[in-house]
């Protein structure tokens, strides 16, 4: 039994008039890589490979290096470039030569012409290449001008009037700028120095900079007054790692509720609260973690969510805001953390003074966030409704809580 013949491999069809139209080797290679992408079954003569792919196929480094050869093929009539702004460039490969083509249509005619009249054939080839050179001349001129401008900039001599990069002035007083391009003063406000060399009494540069002591009087023994310490420091952002570390200290049951309400991540206001606590209140990650854990238990959120008698949490994001909210001190003590001084570990004296001053007048039970641990905090009469899907929530107890809440509201209205 005879062995069947192997299947014919795929090959690319290139019209002979294209190889004889005056194209050089690189142009013919690009045409071959365009032609191999034709879909002959559909009958379409258009392809749309990228210039980077074509450059890689023929061994060029950049996609721009392909443009001269594509333009040459378009001038010779081998391809038609369809380029439109915002659209992908396509290349049409005509099956027949364009109108006005006077060259050979196949290799046999080209060989016959070269044998019979070699001078005429050579002149025709030169005429075809002249068309390509004429079309490429504007692009070549732009490229040469760009190269010449870059070369001239690199070879330009430094102006002798411009100070060299010595770093010091002639009087060795202040450093001078280095390099060829010096800063130019613009606008109506002139730059002011630090005030070390000014002696005039009306010199505004001797006013000081806000935090540093001013230069004061120019006389002997004349001193100035330092700036007050009430100026606010420049705002800065907290590191993202610190923000993530604070968010990792959120209790796990609350995290489950937050993931249910915000599956794509917490809103930006939570990050702002954490950043305000880190930068504005100047708290550390450990201190904020302790604040969250303390308020989670002290404010009754853990009992409301996990205990059998609890009625659940209505808004997990609101609870998180309360856990991260700034510490409120009645005496505006920056180091007061929910009624405890961070430096001494003792109750905040300002909160204690304010509480003692207000207690005889109003008889209030105190502020829940600054009272001592011995005092108890009474929860408000309103009990939020139960939340579906919360672990440890009894629906019957939640229903009773809602009925008691409605009854309490009715008594208040009466």
Give a verbal description of the structure.
The protein is mainly α. The protein contains 14 helices and five strands. It has a three-stranded antiparallel sheet with strand order 1-3-2, with helices on one face. A two-stranded antiparallel sheet has the order 4-5. Helix 5 crosses helix 6, helix 7 (240-247) crosses helix 9 and helix 7 (240-247) packs parallel to helix 10 (285-298). The longest helix is centred in the first third of the chain and has 38 residues, at 118-155. The protein is elongated, with a radius of gyration of 42 Å. The N and C termini lie far apart (109 Å).
List its traits.
414 residues; mainly alpha; three-stranded antiparallel β-sheet; two-stranded antiparallel sheet; 14 helices; elongated
């Amino acid at each position: 039994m005879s062995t069947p013949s192997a299947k014919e491999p795929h090959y690319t069809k290139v019209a002979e008039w294209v190889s004889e139209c005056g194209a050089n080797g690189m142009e013919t290679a690009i045409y071959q890589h365009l032609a191999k992408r034709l879909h002959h079954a559909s009958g379409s003569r258009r392809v749309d490979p990228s210039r980077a792919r074509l450059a890689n196929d023929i061994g060029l480094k950049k996609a721009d290096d392909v443009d001269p050869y594509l333009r040459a093929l378009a001038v010779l009539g081998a391809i038609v470039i369809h380029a439109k702004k915002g659209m992908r460039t396509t290349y049409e490969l005509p099956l027949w030569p364009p109108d006005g083509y006077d060259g050979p249509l196949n290799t046999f005619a080209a060989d016959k012409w070269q044998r019979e009249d070699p001078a005429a054939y050579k002149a025709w080839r030169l005429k075809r290449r002249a068309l390509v050179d004429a079309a490429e001349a504007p692009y070549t001129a732009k490229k040469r001008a760009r190269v010449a401008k870059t070369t001239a900039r690199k070879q330009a001599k430094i102006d002798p009037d411009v100070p060299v990069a010595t770093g010091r002035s002639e009087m060795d007083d202040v450093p001078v700028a280095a390099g060829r391009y010096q800063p130019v003063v613009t606008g109506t406000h002139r730059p002011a120095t630090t005030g070390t060399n000014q002696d005039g009494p009306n010199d505004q540069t001797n006013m000081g900079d806000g935090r540093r002591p001013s230069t004061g009087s120019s006389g002997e023994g004349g001193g100035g007054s330092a700036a007050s310490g009430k100026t606010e420091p420049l705002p800065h952002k907290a590191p993202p790692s610190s923000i993530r570390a604070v968010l990792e200290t959120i209790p796990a049951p609350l995290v489950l509720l937050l993931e249910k309400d915000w599956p794509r991540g917490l809103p930006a206001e939570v990050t702002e609260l954490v950043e305000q606590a880190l930068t504005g209140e100047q708290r550390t990650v450990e201190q904020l973690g302790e604040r969250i854990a303390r308020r989670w238990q002290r404010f009754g959120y853990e009992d409301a969510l996990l205990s059998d008698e609890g009625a659940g949490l209505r808004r997990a994001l609101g609870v998180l805001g309360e856990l991260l909210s700034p510490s409120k001190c009645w005496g505006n003590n920056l180091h007061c953390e929910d009624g405890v001084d961070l430096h001494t570990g003792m109750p905040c004296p300002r909160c204690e003074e304010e509480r003692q001053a207000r207690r005889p007048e109003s008889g209030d039970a105190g502020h829940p966030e600054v009272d001592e641990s011995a005092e108890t905090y009474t929860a408000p009469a309103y009990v939020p409704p139960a939340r579906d899907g919360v672990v440890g929530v009894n629906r019957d107890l939640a229903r009773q809580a809602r009925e008691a809440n409605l009854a309490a509201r009715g008594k208040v209205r009466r």
